Amino acid sequence: MAMPIFLLLLGFLAPISTLSSMVQDPKLVVQHVHRSINESRRNMGFLSCGTGNPIDDCWRCDKGWEKNRQRLADCAIGFGKHAIGGRDGKIYVVTDSKNDDPVNPKPGTLRYGVIQNEPLWIIFAHDMTIKLKEELMMNSFKTIDGRGADVHIAGGPCITIQYVTNIIIHGVNIHDCKQGGNADVRDSPDHYGWRTISDGDGISIFGGSHVWVDHCSLANCHDGLIDAIHGSTAITISNNYMTRHDKVMLLGHSDSLIQDKNMQVTIAFNHFGEGLVQRMPR
Ligand SMILES: *[C@@H]1O[C@H](CO)[C@@H](O)[C@H](O)[C@H]1NC(C)=O
User: For the segment 174-186, what is each residue's pLDDT rounded down to a tens digit?
Assistant: First the structure.
């Protein structure tokens, strides 16, 4: 099926550089993206598994991808390319879609996996819908990999990537996200804290860096589908399918926030689908 492809590359070059994750020569990154797209297109053809999409061609041509899941971490392009997620850690399998406890998460739940300090590559034992009670506060070096299962995070608060790095979210359906808050939520094995009312985004990136969101479907959330604010940078948002939503994607929320002048985001191969209204992106 031919999908409309919208390719947009943003490289905001700032006069001051405070963030170590800032790429000094953004034009090189853009050039690299174009080169990998060109290479993938050259490898298309009859009896070839190539699609011309360099991210997909990087792992889908591997028949044993399910045994080599962590290879996906090396397939990103653009400013979020160096997000390794849980590439160097163990596989963690989510078996329990119910029983979300925001302060004392139980082993087997998604929340228990994402708060750990060690790197983890998180996969799902079977199809499931996870309705969270509060925001899912992610810790650094985590991949949420929905490949092989039909996974929905829906109907409650959704994903928050706050002041952490190296996050990959792939192949998950994120929709009907609600506000959470006025509650304690755990963000690591040794810390939980009080959360005020959240925006109700699908994925909220707040001071986060090295983040890659790929092949997710996102729809119908309370605020943004994917918002990146407060000094977030080194992000790639690719191959996502977005529908039925007002404020789709916000990159920086205030002109006076000086940190956001460093923001570097690649937005590529996304499908901005039916029922969207504004911020594609803003
Ligand atoms: C990619 O291919 C296009 C069209 O052939 C060409 O104009 C462009 O220079 C190529 N870019 C890179 C970085 O190789």
Answer: 999 999 999 999 9
Q: Which residue has the tokens 């963000």?
A: 187
pLDDT of residue 20: 66
Q: Count the neighbouring beta carbons within 10 Å of the beta carbon of residue 157.
A: 30
How many beta carbons lie within 10 A of that of residue 180, not counting itself? 24
Residue 158 Cα to ligand 1 middle (Å):
39
What pLDDT, in 10s, does the model give residues 78-108? 999 999 999 999 999 999 999 999 999 999 9
Ligand 1 atom nearest residue 31's Cα: 13
pTM score? 0.92
| Cα separation, 45 vs 28, whole angstroms | 28
Answer yes or no: are the C-beta atoms of 136 and 110 closer than 8 Å. Answer: yes
| Sign, CA torsion 107/111/114/116 | negative
pLDDT at 33: 96
CA of residue 261 to ligand 1 center, whole Å: 29
Rounded distance, CA 175 to CA 154, Å? 5
DSSP, res 210: E
Domains and CATH numbers, the chain: 6-24+82-272 (2.160.20.10)
Distance CA 202, CA 153 (A): 9
CA distance linking residue 151 with residue 10, whole number of Å: 30
| Residue ranges around ligand 1 (CB below 6 Å) | 31, 34-35, 38
Q: If you search the block for the tokens 């959330």, which residue do you land on?
A: 221
Residue 174 CA to residue 248 CA, distance in Å, equals 13
Task: Respond yes or no: is residue 111 known to be catalytic.
Answer: no
